[in-house]
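Q: Fold this one first, please.
A: Sequence and structure below.
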Amino acid sequence: MRSPLPPAVTRAVRWALTRAKRIPTSEQIAWARSLPIRSRTVVYESFAGNGALCNPEAIFRALLDDPEFADLTHVWAMSDADATEAVRAEFADRRNVVVVKRGSAAYWRAVSTAGYLINNATFPPAFGKRSGQVYLNTWHGTPLKLMGFDMPGGALESANTLRNLLSADYLLAANPFMAETMYEDAYQLRNVYRGAIIEEGYPRIDRQWMTDAERAERITELGAHLGTPLTGKRIVLFAPTWRGTSFQAPDADLAHLVDQLAALQRQVGEDTVVLLKTHQVVHRAASGIPALKRLLVPNATATNVLLGLADALITDYSSIFFDYLATGRPIGFLVPDGDSYSAERGTYMPLDELPGPVHTDPAELGRALADLMTPDAAPHSRYGEWVERFVPFDDGQATSRVIDVVFRGRTTDRRVRSARRDDRTRLLFYLGGMRLNGITTAAVNLLNSLDTDRYDVTALMSFPRGATTRHNQSRLDPTIRQVFRIGGMNGLKARQALRRVADVSTDPLRAHRRLGHRTLWKDEWTRIFGTAKFDWVADFSGYSPFWAHLLLHSPRATRVIWLHNEMAADRARTVNGKQAFRRSLGRVFAMYRAYDQLVSVSPSLTDLNRVELAEYAPADRFVTLRNLPDAVSAAPVDEREEENESTDEDAARSQTIAAALDAPGLRRFITVGRLSTEKNHARLIRAFARVAVTEPDTQLFIVGGGPLQAALEQQVREAGLTGRVFLTGPLRDPVSIMRRCDCFVLSSDYEGQPMVLIEAAQLELPIVSTAFASARGALPGDDMHIVARNDEALAEGMGAFLGGRVAPASLDVEAYTAEVLTQFDALVPTLSQTTARRAPGAR
């Protein structure tokens, strides 16, 4: 049933309710962060609290048994009730072992105050490491599957992971491949990660090393738990991975698992038992299947203990097999969906190069594995090579070496290094809301054109929630590091309210120094970026006080803000009787003096802004960088900016516009831009009305959305221009309509360097434009027909086109792009210049 409320109201209500639910947790976190750091407390978390598992568990047990660390308090964060009960039962007599529920007030108190934090995945978005805390991220395995930015859609999937990795003081790598391919390349940590990478093997693999007596005892205990006798039997562990592209949507085809398990069991023989180890995210569902009940190993049982018990392993794409290489025992790979999985998710190594038999049929794999398990069987031909490459340091002592580094500070004879760094200058751009507008297009075009041999580029954005913002985000070159702000600023709500009041009522830069708000901003920067550092930091949006303020709290760098328009006029802009930007832009202007470069997008616009904003910054800080063109799209895209399903009205509008474009023998004017006062579409409609009287074979298309759409539609109706003037609404690809029109018209009162003019010139459309202040010079060669800003002059300009007196515009894209990129290079200091300018002791 559809909501009776308009979609915008429904979204606003949901947003408000969600925010209200978060307030208690936000206050708990803020209060916890005000408490002192407890230097001898360690917090452990594995797989979002699914158990005491993986590398954190191995480190925990080693520290607990070492008298040197008897003064440590150990806190486990748990979300699984069974795992919680198991840990509490095992350590009931240890007063220094505590369990807290993940997400509770006790959890946030522990995470916010512990001296040491150890996680094999990620802490939640609200987490921000405090000064004085030591964060070790161990991750949970050497990857076969593509990770991070290498995954399809990996930038969005990796948002919180990248944030956690940048915050970590230490990243644990089982081998050099993991350090280089996953951390430095897939998660793009090279150049910006400032912690240390430890390459000393995996602590969890130490748990696979056990005496014969220990192994026999654990096999007996496991058999008793399952109700399946295991003593005297060989064990094959079947450990398939999850199938989803997101942990929020795993594919748990459990009936298929039952069939695979039965087929494998038939082939390996009666003296062997095949046990099932599912991924953490599907275990609960699997435990409800009767056929799996006596074969499904407990979720809380340490995986590496199971590997130590197993005589052979069967998996598919799970990183579990890398650990198992240390045992020297056979591995088989069951990949019935190998081709599709490789195509959709991707793997770092071809499946036919794995260190064991690879089959799509479980019966065939079972037979091949049975042969490898015979007493005199030779290892698989690639096994030794993989052991040397992926478990070179796993000798049963990795845990001790990791503890040496993290808890004893011993690094001199340990494999500890910094992330790779090259000589490229590190650039950070905040790109704005990634909405359907010229700023987004200009940002994407610039970033995609930068020389990646010279610059290491990072794009900062809010997390895109709708289809349009995701589409615009996806247009960025995949080599660009993408960082998303997820979660919100920490701090008590009362303090946040005071910050907002002070920012509005006083000079924001003075307010944060005088009232102690600097800590809030620095904590937010650290929550997003950890200790990452950049050489050149730019607010490309230029309209948001929040983002303009946040970027000023980066570690020392050249700081830049874009001025996309005649900013003083923008501040005074009135829409529906309201000056929406008056306060917000006033606060942005007040921060100009803290920026090193104020970038306008054309020379004439720079001159205007330098004069009109002289009270906010010295004249020499106003500089110019033109917008860059993009290869205009050849394929029409008519998806709308609204994220909801199309309405009948939308469909009817699209049909009407398509029919109008198909009508033969007509001459068509087009304009593209937000339906706001500065664009003055009302003037354009009035001017077209003059033209339409004598030129009946003409049409006008107005592409864009905005607050004045209803008023402009009414104006069209009252002028009797229905069927001659068409308001299309916002389109992702306006070029698809521009190609079918004959003349581009701009009726603006003021502008920057409109991206649509560059696109029109690329399409070689004749251009008629009003003489807004920065019009001359908006295109190289002033390749436009410029008229006065009144109805009569604009109508005469349109008539000049109809009379053949306005030549098509043109743009030498290659030469223009080279010129703009040279200007950009002049704005960005070299790395040596940046280093020389830094103050002593600066971060």
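Q: Good. Now the second chain.
A: Here it is, same layout.
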Amino acid sequence: MGRTNMAHEHRGDPLGITSAAVVLVDAHGLIKHWSAAAQNLLGYAAAEVLQQPATSLLLSEDALTSAWFGARRVGAGWEAEVTARHRAGHPLEVALRACPVRTGNGSEWLITACDSAASRKWELDQVVVRTLLEEQALAGTGPDEEPRSLWVNPRTAGMEELPPQEAPTLPPSALCARRMPSAVDVPAAPNTGLDRGQRSRRSSRRPAEPTGRALGPRSTAVAVPSSDEARERLTLINEAGQRIGTTLDLDHTVRELAEVLVPELADFAAIDLFQGGLTAKEVTGEPVTGGTLRRATNLSIHEEHPEVVVAIGEPTRYPARSPQRRCLEAGRSILDPVLAPTTWWLAEDPLRLEKLHRIGVHTHLTVPLRARGVTMGVVTLLRWENPDAFDEDDQLLVEELVARAAVCVDNARRFAREHNAALALQTSLLPPDLPDHSAVELAYRYLPTDAEAGVGGDWFDVIPLSGARVALVVGDVVGHGIHAAASMGRLRAAVQTLADLDLPPDELLAHVDDLVLRLADEAEAATDDPMVIGATCVYAVYDPISGKLNVARAGHPSPAIAHLSEPVEFPDIPAGPPLGLGGLPFESAEIAVEEGSVIALYTDGLIEASDRDVDVGFERLCFALAHPDRPLEEICDTMVRTLLPDHPHDDVAFLIARTHRLPPDRVVSWEVPSDPRAVHDVRCEAVRQLTDWGLEDLAFTTELIVSELVTNAIRHAGGPTALRLILDRSLICEVSDASNTSPHMRRSPVTDEGGRGLFLVAQVAQRWGTRYTGTGKTVWAEQPLPPGDISPRR
């Protein structure tokens, strides 16, 4: 009878199949089997529940959701608690254990259930027993006259370097330095091989039989775990601080975070960032409810990455109620088990469902990547080869690591945003393409500095001028970043405007110098930490009719000229002060250039690259420009290869131009007497020249332009007057005189007999203007050529 009572009182696992309620659910969620214990637990007879949905027994749909969130992996199955509805109508907290069963009809679920109170009581008992017998280093000795160890747990056997299966045959002296005569705690640890930092406790007592006779000494040794695990976590956090954020490159920074997490904490890590690294709620810092996530990086313990569903750079497209979306909406980490086919959010993503279950992922941890009130993305961690599910300690550690890394990611994101904005601004301010000009053949290179230094203020430009001439410009603004790019844009616009006025190079640089002074004053007034505003520039005008180059420079390197028959030349052009100093004059120089020569304008970054001596840079430039008859693109490649390292420390811009001369038979000029009767004669000469060029269609408009411009010169200007016709890609008519008075177009009243000359010229010409020379001025007008191949008649 005693044995029967003892067996009856023994409390086994309440979720064991011999004592728990047993339910079998098919692949469609319908109940196929209902045991008698199930009826005792919930009150329903089998006939009432068979072929009914299992979810109909729950108190609400929220109860199922709560169960899924709280489920934990146990072997091949899962354990959870749900709130069920008893047949009597009251709610009942029920503990479940579910295990998948493969059948010919698909995956079915074998479920055992019991009252939650009984399950928790049994779990508490197990924790106590396991703590005493397994988690601590412990050994027990028996009551023999020569006491021998009856049982040694695995941890003690490991400390003593003893195989557990041999422990029962070992004498206790192998485990204990001494045997205690009575039950007592000993503060000093015996020599049991405990790790440094652990505390040990040993007790002994003499157990007695029911009769009271002592059986012999019995002893127990217990080791309290050390703080090694805590030290390891602190070490990992410290290591992460050193490894993450070594650069300001966004891709590299997120990769560093992934390398810290895998394999130390997870078997797989994926980091997804919002498109462009920004969120729609960046200003307010509110939880994120939308936006496009893109995969920034992923890392796996396996090189082949079997768990990857989304490639780097692709949108992730997580389901609406996935842990990632819930994590972003709530602004906190989500720890989820990965349930088998009934995982509700995975039902919307069959590809991800198949992969997660095929490789056996058991837990899923998602943490928002958030810094300075901005949610930038989400970090996803998976475990499958690591048998331990993520727990709350893992969650806290990952949150700490991600929070620290998020600051580095945000720094990289902010830098990338500013760098990209500056680069886009600078690119938009540079000429999108070089103009096709008959006076020069052109090629260029613009090479921004590396990402560490930022965007600079180098620029170049090619500006068509009147009289078939062309202006070549290269400049360099002091500093880097978006402010330098903005200043460069303002200077380039100013140079273009002044070039349209046909100012001489030295006078143009003087006006630009005034502008830089104003920009510096504005910058100083606008901030407590004024920016340095300064620039250098070289401005050159090439005339294909005279074959001369007129150059002025402001603190900029002198152009290089590669002649066909002579060595490369660096002409002696007055240096001039850098722009922004003010008060100092600029001078220009005129140089004769033979046809086919190559002119190179460049910034100082080209000859000062890699901290080389400037003289070495000039020598290498001469070598690169040798043989100017080569294709210009080939010359550009040679300059880059010869003068620049892989990562130059400064922006580099250079512009090269091969000169061409306008054929002599395309330029005709006449001296015009200061007599109004000469207008008729010169008009007839112009018409005859158009006939020789095959441009009879332009005779009427050309007569009108010549008449009005020559008449104005004779009537309002003194001294000699000259007419010149130029046949280039347009027909150019120029009238020069000795006056410095600029003509103005006006709309005359109907009653006036004159004053409409320039107005008529503006109506028939494509464009017109005035430029000043050392002896007076030139008024010019351009007309487009008729369509077709126009070749001058010989």
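Q: Anything worth noting on the second one?
A: Confidence is low (pLDDT under 50) at residues 1-10, 164-218, 277-286, 750-754.
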